[in-house]
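Q: What does the predicted 3D structure of Polysaccharide biosynthesis family protein look like?
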Amino acid sequence: MRKGRVMLCVFDIETIPNISLCKEHFQLKEDDALKICECSFEKQKEKSGSEFLPLYLHEIISIAAVIGDDYGQFVKVGNFGQKHENKEGFPSEKELLEDFFKYFNEKQPRLISFNGRGFDMPLLTLKALKYNLTLDAFYSQENKWENYRARYSEQFHLDLMDSLSHYGSVRGLNLNGICSMTNIPGKFDVSGDLVHAIYYNPKISQKEKKEIIDSYCQSDVLNTYWLFLKYEVLKGALNKEQYLGLLNDFLEKFPKEKSYSSVFTNALEKEIREFA
């Protein structure tokens, strides 16, 4: 049951192919991780016309979130699972889930995502089955029209892809394309289809891999947060002055030492100048 102020959680996950499951599923004999990924993508494309693997063949390696207050004001951005980093740098999948689920069950935030209903939450709940974890807040249903699983309830989970595509009436929308149109940075150095190549690259240290992938995941939620603010303007929930105030606060508080920092700084400063 939600009590008091409801925080925002703009979230995103990054995944890689699960090597052992892919070998079994596609009956592969290769041992090299990258080769297994490539063969899995090829076989999946032959089967379905798309390289995108079934959810049960994904492994979650990063969960990032922008946390905001109930007015939409930026509080912080970061990654879950930081308390559980092992000697190789990455927390285990179970540790990531435990940390995120603990936050979710306790805080019951308003979720903001891009395709979170179609990918992130279904995968997270499938993984909960694997580890016998509880996500009771997600399944709580005091009101059948207002809960996390009610598709049209933007107060519990606003999936911007769902809302901007008019719930599937429009096909082909993606976060990067919308960001490009709206002068939000979008993807600028890494994209989701490269994450596995970074993770399984033996020439990159575990520490560097984690920094690259976690920072990329953070940049995605920063993009989604900014798009959310624009969506609030579209709906009339924010006026021009409120929007600019939230952008200035965003500019002041987000990390300045990340690979994405200068790109977001320049884009935010430009947006503030043009709309002031």
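A (community wiki): The structure tokens above were generated from the sequence. The two ends are 40 Å apart (CA to CA). DSSP finds eleven helices and five strands in the chain.
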